[in-house]
Amino acid sequence: MTQTAAGCELVFLPLGGSGEIGMNFNAYGYGSADDREWIIADCGVLFGREANTPGVDVIMPDIRFLAEQRQNVLGMVLTHAHEDHIGAIAHLWPQLRCPLFATPFTARLIEEKLAEAGLDEEVAVTVVPISGHVVLGPFEIDYITLTHSIPESNALAIRTPLGVVVHTGDWKLDPEPLLGSVSDAPALRKLGNEGVLALVCDSTNALSAGHSGSEAAVRESLISLIAGLKGRIAVTGFASNVARLQSIAHAARAAGREIVLVGRSMHRIVNAARDVGCLTDFPASVSEDEAVSLPPDRVLFLCTGSQGEARAALARIAAGEHNIKLGRGDTVIFSSRIIPGNELAIFELQNRLAALGVSVLTEKDHFVHTSGHPCRDELEQMYRWVRPHIAVPVHGERRHMEEHAQLARSLQVPEAIVLENGQMLRLAPGRAQLVDETPAGRLHLDGRILVSEGDGYARARRSLGFAGLIAVTLVLDHKGRIAAEPTILFEGIPDPVRQPVNAALGEALRRHNPRRADEAALKEVVRLAVRRAAANAWGKKPVTRVEVIRL
Amino acid sequence: MTQTAAGCELVFLPLGGSGEIGMNFNAYGYGSADDREWIIADCGVLFGREANTPGVDVIMPDIRFLAEQRQNVLGMVLTHAHEDHIGAIAHLWPQLRCPLFATPFTARLIEEKLAEAGLDEEVAVTVVPISGHVVLGPFEIDYITLTHSIPESNALAIRTPLGVVVHTGDWKLDPEPLLGSVSDAPALRKLGNEGVLALVCDSTNALSAGHSGSEAAVRESLISLIAGLKGRIAVTGFASNVARLQSIAHAARAAGREIVLVGRSMHRIVNAARDVGCLTDFPASVSEDEAVSLPPDRVLFLCTGSQGEARAALARIAAGEHNIKLGRGDTVIFSSRIIPGNELAIFELQNRLAALGVSVLTEKDHFVHTSGHPCRDELEQMYRWVRPHIAVPVHGERRHMEEHAQLARSLQVPEAIVLENGQMLRLAPGRAQLVDETPAGRLHLDGRILVSEGDGYARARRSLGFAGLIAVTLVLDHKGRIAAEPTILFEGIPDPVRQPVNAALGEALRRHNPRRADEAALKEVVRLAVRRAAANAWGKKPVTRVEVIRL
User: Fold this and answer.
1) Straight-line distance from the first to the last Cα atom of chain B, in angstroms, rounded to the nearest whole number
2) Which of B169, B374, B409, B445 gives the lowest tally of CB atoms within 10 Å of its CB?
3) Burial A372-389 (b: 16+ CB within 10 A, else e)
């Protein structure tokens, strides 16, 4: 091993993705505690949930710790193009202003995002060839091809003077991925033979036994399923799964159906994949307008909207708000899984389709989907190849990461460590050890404004959602006397609550003695009286505000 | 068939449960269109979801159509004691004031609810023996024992002068239900031989192939699973599944563990089941206080909270807010399924347990649960026994009911009809036919107040949740001039939105000319200016209110 300066350490710092499946953001630091150089692996978003974070579409990590030392951030290396790995770049790059590195398909999709954000002139995206190599200060990084549910997913072999880290990104072991090469087992085995310090690895399916299966098997199943259907067919799925799109297109053509791409993402991804050359065998599609004149059993619509997104193509079709119409005798295939939290929206969509008489087929009843993440047998295979000294599960909720760590221990990995976002782990030298807790939190993209979760706007709105609002405005003269009839605003509060609240307000104001109460005291008296009356009448406590206008 | 008066019809009217799994409320009417007598089968709630109906715990049907003719409502017949079948009684009975009929265990739980609501003095609950008989005007009703995930689930054979309807309630075909008798196949077969007009049947699992399985098999699995575990064990599940509670208790005793009931529902259900004699073989439990002094592997906690409910026992244990502590080496078994919509709450609970080092076992990885509803093989069996002329799927979302209807048609049932709540179906005489659409909707229990969904309080709060609120209060003198600095309230709105909104308000008021604008026009000008400024700065449109105080 290369000679290292005294005090040099190799540390790992996840700022996102350790505790949630989403917003992956992992940093590796090399140097002394006072002077580290950093690289970042991935920069993704998490999707907000109306129940928890109403009004927030996407969530990303708070990276202030690295932003404050951005002169030491050497670059950001992207493993693949899923939103939970690249979706935050356009929002967070201005805090870092570092160079980006990605393989062709990923780079193309990043550039599209940067262009939308008006950042394309400023940001340098270096295109790394498949199985390419990047050197950033003390980090020498090899891209290693893995299979996943998107083209060009890569592990990173990160060589440092203190040892090699294998950072898997998202992966599975698909013996027939249909697009791209199979996972590069020889490279992983070779790394294992050379000696790997740490494996930082995908935990998504650590709770699932067995093997995730192959895209080729899904293709066979789709071909035979689609061949047997009459009427119109719509298939919905994740647009980024280009191999799946290709399988569906092949199944359509095998059944004598024209393929119609419906929804902006479908066009965007197919174009990107074609342009960079990772999709060479996709049949010509017909336009929505052309499709309308085709007989029902000569057409297959490939639609966005598998997660029940209200503005996506399938939801608009189901609502009758789209040129494409489906009805009795037609079939919709969900070639996708349910992302947790989307159940009710997806079921509502499926109910609308059922009400139109459409048959709805899903992975629950037909083999139309396979996961892109490693199940336990695949994780075992990876550990047998890489044989790391330290296992660091990432890309999971706590339950997935703990299970993953248990699995690693059962495979005799000497150290398996579950981190929370913001915990800095020293990987070398010496035993793996927590050496710092950095500020870590979440940013909400609230409308167009990036705010800290800690600012509490979404939490405040959640309170409004639960129990509404009562706002009282009082007008006082210069002696502090009530000078006009106050206003009282009720929002989201049942009518029967009004009368008792009005009465309580009147009573509180009648007791008001301007000589004995200052403005703050008056506001608090009124607030408590109003809130108590609402709680008594309703059983819930609304957000209660009192404003005073002085004449 | 008995001679019937001219113009007499038998109709079926679901007011709840046709379109959702929950709030079951089904009415059968007999008589002429102008003069029908009614019976009601079940009166349940649906649980609210924070994302869709924030601040609403339970939802129930709007029964105004029957309430307006309550003198013609002969009685309410309850099939079993699940909340989605009896949970609305205490809220809706005052609108109907009819007699209630239920088997002993169900009657006991209804009486407890009525007592809590202070209605026990007013309401008559007639206890029907197992396989008992109720006569209500032209309706002669036989209770027929079925198996389900609660003691004493019953189908109703409803005999009328125009034919027999079999109303299944909730059921499965469990060959070894552990508590109570097996499903009464001879009675169903006999009805089929006599001729059944209509089968009104549970659709919950119509999308699931095969058979739902048996409680006895779950018991065997739990016994062997629990025998192999060390450390503390907590098992959570649905308290109303008394057979399951008994299985868990047996498994505990077989492993030399004391059983501890944790959570109010556990005690309530076990006591009720014991009192009415349907649970005779439940081991003595020890108290939480006694349990604390027992060695970890001598105790099993049977806990409420399998759906991630924040105030239930398991959530409080996971949060460290309970006398019972769990940690590394301990195990929690979720002997339950995830009710759709509860995923994120349950996963959050499991993540908290995982972070404590607790092993979490669920039906995903271990055989610890079986559904209480019929899968497709069981539905087929029911249709073979009953051989109805008309199939009316109920107790399902649209996708379940459509699939159920398809299944019935494939079994050569002549008519299979999917209804929406409020649609009145004539079952006889003649072909089944929609004869009326009655007012149907939902009531929200909002705090303690029952409001109509149509009143829009939850919808208004959902809007507040999405984009917050801006409220402006203006003070005008008697000439309509601005008489004081206005107040502006921002709730749930990011700080950067304030300045542009304040500026827009100032600008709008500077343009205000009291001679040329009335109060309504001023309010609208201000509202639009504020809302537009917020939308421009934020990308979202908050709820915007303008109040005026006149001096």
Assistant:
1) 78
2) B409
3) bbbbbebbebbbebbbbb
Strands B423-428 and B433-437: antiparallel
Torsion A398-A400-A401-A402 (CA) sign: positive
Q: Is the pLDDT of residue B226 over 90?
A: yes
Contact A37, A74 (CB under 8 A): yes
For residue A486, which residues of chain B lie inside 8 Å, CB to CB? 549
Residue B551: how many CA atoms within 13 Å on its side-chain side?
A: 19
pLDDT tens for A425-439 read 999 999 999 999 999
Query: Which long-range CB contacts under 8 A does B505-514 form with residues at least 24 apart?
Result: B505/B472, B505/B529, B505/B530, B505/B533, B509/B474, B509/B482, B512/B482, B514/B476, B514/B479, B514/B480, B514/B481
How many of the other CB atoms lie within 10 Å of CB of B533?
23
Query: φ and ψ at B54, to 5 degrees?
Result: -60, 140
**Minimal CA–CA distance to A103: which of A50, A148, A58, A63?**
A148
CB contact under 8 A, A354 and B403: yes
What confidence tens digit (pLDDT) does each residue in B288-305 have?
Answer: 999 989 999 999 999 999
Helix (H, G, I), strand (E, B) or coil at B232: coil
Report CA dihedral (B437, B438, B442, B443) to the nearest 10 degrees.
170
- Residue carrying the six token digits 């493993």: A79
The Cα A269–Cα A125 span in angstroms is 19
Chain A residue numbers with beta carbons less than 8 Å from the beta carbon of B465 are 50, 54-55, 461-462, 464-465
Taking the Cβ of residue B49 and every Cβ of chain A, the question of whether any pair is shorter than 8 Å is answered with yes
HEC string of A223-292?
Answer: HHHHHCCCCCEEEECCCCCHHHHHHHHHHHHHCCCEEEEECHHHHHHHHHHHHCCCCCCCCCECCHHHHH
C-alpha A301/C-alpha A263 separation (Å) is: 10
- On chain A, the residues whose CB falls within 8 A of the CB of B472 are none
Residue A464 at interface with chain B, using a CB cutoff of 8 Å:
yes
B48: which residues sit within 8 A by CB, 6+ positions away? B55, B56, B57, B58, B59, B444, B458
Q: Please give the structure tokens belonging to residue B551.
A: 């001096």
Residue A491, chain B, CB below 8 Å: the answer is yes
- The CA-based diameter of chain A, rounded to the nearest angstrom, is 88
| Closest by Cα among B370, B367, B374 to B209 | B374
Optimal mutation site among B57, B203, B328, B446, interface A, most CBs of chain A within 10 A: B446
Q: Is the pLDDT of residue B221 over 80?
A: yes
Is A496 an interface residue toward B (CB < 8 Å)?
Answer: yes
The one-letter code for the residue type at B184 is D
User: pTM score > 0.80 for this model?
Assistant: yes
Nearest to B147 by CA among B167, B176, B189, B127: B176
Nearest CB partner across the interface for A464, out of B364, B449, B469: B469
Q: Which domains does chain B have, with CATH numbers?
A: 10-210+371-455 (3.60.15.10), 215-361 (3.40.50.10710), 468-550 (3.10.20.580)
Tokens 């906690």 label which residue?
A: B301
